[in-house]
Amino acid sequence: MNIDVVIIGLILILSALYALFNIFGVVGLGCGIALIVTYFVLLKLRPQKPKEKSAFQNIKFKVPFILILGVIIWFVAGKFNFPIWWQIEFVAFAIVGFCFFTLLDWKTLTVEKSASAWIMRLLATYALASGIFITATAQLPQFDPEFELAKLNKPPLVLGDAAGPEVIAAGREVFQNNKCFNCHKVFWEGNSDRGPNLGTKQIGLYSTDYIKEQILDPRKKQSPGFDDPKSIKAMPTYYDEDLSEDELSALTSYLKTLRDPTHMPVEGKFGNQWTWWDDPDIIAEGKTVFEGTHPATEGLNCAVCHGKDGIPMMTGALDFRNENNPDTEKMPDRIDKLLKDWPDGLWYRRVTRGVDNTPMAPWGTIFEHQYLWKAEAYARTFHDPLDNRTAKRPVPPVPTKEEVEKWKTDSLFLEPLL
Ligand code: HEC
Ligand code: HEC
Predict the structure, then answer these.
(1) Alpha helices (H) in 257-386, listed in sequence order
(2) CATH superfamily, domain at 274-409
């Protein structure tokens, strides 16, 4: 039988099987048919006399092609948040492909004279390929059994007298050793977006009890935007057995530091995220904070001065209905922007630290900042009602390591951190 008929038959059978048993079957069948058509076209082409190419002719187009392709792969992989080692690996694959095609077009070697000669050639090729492979992979991060064993055999964490930064550092290590980074990013750090980015979500705004509960019993309350069937069951439920009391408390101390004084918290899955500014549940809760009925912020009532309907009850209190209000004149860090354009960080600073020598007190020294952010999200609706919004506020870019460090050195956080 003609070999072409066999090949086309095989492609047809495989694509048909694929189409029957795979959810992307139609795509597979389409690819199969495209392959067959290409095959026919190639068959129709008149056979050309094979021409030897010089080494330069061989790589003339391949080198610029691989350079451009490598750059594209690098950036696309980066855009999809692949870790850097994956990016390197993808580009390496493209380079392997380049070598392969270069080899295919290489000048024909002289015919071997004896059986031993071709065996030598085969072995030499194999040795060369293995040598390159081993040398290259040895440069990648290695699995070190001693290191891993030392980690396993390490005595369990005992906090004892450790406090402050040491506890936080120990908690970070617990986070790392328990592979939390495999599913959770913390701002710019971590491997995948399977679970919420605990940095931009600002898990540190939540109470210690809430955070502990979410680790020990993750099914109890689903993270917003992670309620699809796959994510619901993703977070492991064995941490209540794996973590000692001290490890858990160090872990929570670390998580409590994950905040951003310059942006509203972000919820949801990568690609479909939103900030608290546009979250109806948050705004509804913020209303109860603003009106003084939230049990967690007893004694705080923005409405007493700013008015339940946004009509100020106290002269001089900011009128949230007027989107063209400037920033207060009374603070040295004044920003020349109208209320509608205020950056998130300005809202946060004013409400947590107050306005000096006015009844607008530093509420952030008394009440948990989580609820103050929520009240701000609600206060904005007086001039920018949720129903009238044409678009959500853009999700801020994930802050960089330098920015996160800067918040601390610029003392943007309040002590104690509520
Ligand atoms: C296999 C993936 C995976 C691992 C490993 C994992 N998580 Fe999660 N985690 C998730 C997913 C998915 C969610 C969101 C769904 C949910 O709420 O259960 C989540 C939710 C959470 C939440 C709740 C967030 C919220 O919105 O309230 C916390 C806190 C958390 N994880 C902490 C941790 C810590 C700490 C570790 C390591 C000890 C860890 N996770 C390990 C997948 C993971
Ligand atoms: C005791 C009265 C009082 C309460 C309670 C109060 N405010 Fe104010 N607030 C004021 C006054 C007065 C000003 C104007 C300060 C000034 O002179 O610039 C103000 C100003 C502001 C400003 C504008 C700051 C600026 O840069 O101009 C914001 C934002 C604000 N308040 C939010 C809130 C929120 C949110 C709450 C509740 C968590 C709250 N306020 C509770 C009295 C109050």
Answers:
(1) 280-290, 302-306, 344-353, 369-380
(2) Cytochrome c-like domain (1.10.760.10)
pLDDT in tens, 188-233: 999 888 999 999 999 999 999 999 999 999 988 999 999 888 888 8
Rounded distance, CA 249 to CA 156, Å?
13
Q: Which fold has domain 163-258?
A: Cytochrome Bc1 Complex; Chain D, domain 2 (1.10.760)
Domain ranges of the chain: 1-46, 54-104, 163-258, 274-409
Q: How many residues does the chain have?
A: 418
- The H or E element that residue 267 is part of is strand 266-269
Q: What percent of the chain has pLDDT over 70?
A: 97
Q: Which mutation among 264, 318, 325 tests ligand 2's pocket best, with the greatest number of atoms within 8 A of CB?
A: 318
> Stretch 276-295: mean pLDDT, rounded?
97
Q: Which ligand is nearest to the CA of 317?
A: 2
CA-proximal residue: ligand 2, atom 34 (nearest): 302
Cα–ligand 2 centroid distance for 371 (angstroms)? 15
CA–centroid distance, 411 to ligand 2, in Å, is 22
Do 163-258 and 274-409 share a fold?
yes
Atom of ligand 1 lying closest to residue 224 CA: 26
